[in-house]
Write a structure and sequence with these properties.
Layout (H helix, E strand, L loop, with lengths): L3 H15 L4 E6 L10 H8 L4 E7 L2 E6 L4 E5 L4 E6 L7 E7 L4 E6 L5 E5 L2 H7 L11 H8 L6 H6 L9 H11 L12 H20 L29 E5 L2 E5 L9
Antiparallel strand pairs: 1-6, 2-3, 3-4, 4-8, 5-7, 6-7, 9-10
Helix pairs in contact: 1-7, 6-7
This protein binds a DNA duplex (14 and 14 nucleotides) through α6.
Amino acid sequence: MPELPTLEIYKKYFDETSLHQTINSVRVVSPEVLVETSSEEIKETLLGHEFIQSRRYGKYLFSQLDNGLFLIMHFGMTGFLHYGSVDGSRYPRLLIEFSTGKFLSFDDARKFGKLGLTRHPDEFIKEKKLGPDALEINFKNFKEIFKNKKGMIKPLLLNQHVLAGIGNLYADEILYQSRVHPLTPAHMLDKEEWEQLFKDMKRVLQKAIEYQDKPEALPESYLLPHRHQGGKCPEGDQLNIIQVGGRTTYFCPQRQKIKH
DNA sequence: CCACATGTTCATTT
DNA sequence: AAAATGAACATGTG
């Protein structure tokens, strides 16, 4: 489920389990997930060192080592971290063993995840042309990034170059909360709708983190618990399912009317 | 066997 | 440059 709230949970998990322990062994199980680095370089960088802190930006987690380098982690669609014994991880791609005998596994069945190294996360973020982080951005900048954008609102929310962190599920939730139709051209939204969208984006992301990124467990008044075939809007209408920018999109035709 | 999946990137076309 | 569309990536699940 790796969207921003997921990453926030992963960061907490990483910080609580994997800091300040010397790394005793490193196994790159699937070199295919490495970007601009090699198994050898990963080993050299990690071995004998320890993680001292981490930073989340959008859907990325940067884990800093005591040698100044950062392990970059992106979790794709099915990636997650597991700390403990090796058995707890079915599809390990990178296995780190600490001096305590415990393992940290970067697990990713589908291998859409990516691992890399950098000395400067800010440079990496710049090179990747990532937009502002959805949880950090203020309203002024939020308005600014959509200025002159003519595209549909949902693909823009999903575009990591515009705004970093929002994925398919929470994009649907944010638009639902804001009563904005996913196909609405960005320039059609008025000032009040932008304010609503900004407010709901923050609220949804924070709520998702509060609920441990379990979309199904959100309150009944949210879209996500009903986001499945045959699901109904809490207000009674049948949810519509359409494709937007190649992604499956759920919305309530009553709540979210297209403007024109 | 088929359809679908929380993400990103690239090619093609408008 | 922008924006829309579709495919590709690799693999599990229903």
